[in-house]
Amino acid sequence: MKIAKMDKRILLQKPVTQEDGYGGLETVFEDAGKVWAKMERTDYAEQQAEGTPMNREQVRIRIRPRRDIRRGWHVLLEGDVFVVETADNTFRDNTMLILRHYEPGV
């Protein structure tokens, strides 16, 4: 993958469990690094033909290969928070992330 096509700067955040002070646990997100990413258009026609569930708020991005990203991580992109739905590491030269827009309280 050509670095010139990666024109978006994103912040990756991983979930960490910590005590909440009341005897329980809470999940907080700590920064796992900033990386360059390439935005890609989601092909809904392909998903519909395969009978895959679709979400119009999905975003597909590609980053340099990272094997540590898992479902549930957060991605901050241009002031919006997205949740990682899928991290596809089958490509040799990049990792593809499928994200959905995160709305607190929904």
Give keywords.
single chain; 106 residues; mainly beta; six-stranded antiparallel β-barrel; 1 helix; 51% strand
Describe this structure in words.
The protein is mostly beta strands and 106 residues long. The chain contains 1 helix and 6 strands, in the order ββαββββ. Strands 1-2-3-6-5-4 form a 6-stranded antiparallel β-barrel. It is globular and about 45 Å long. The relative contact order is 0.23. The model has no long low-confidence stretch (mean pLDDT 86).
- Mean pLDDT across every amino acid position: 86
The unreliable regions are: none
Terminal residue distance: 36 Å
Task: Give the helices and strands as they follow along the chain.
Answer: EEHEEEE
Q: Order of strands in the sheet with the most strands? A: 1-2-3-6-5-4
Please give the largest β-sheet. Answer: 6 strands, antiparallel, barrel
Share of helical residues = under 10%
Give me the Rg, rounded: 15 Å
Shape: globular
Number of DSSP-assigned strands: 6
SSE class = mainly beta
Number of helices: 1
Proportion of beta-strand residues: over 45%
Provide a quick synopsis of the model.
The protein has 106 residues and is mainly beta.
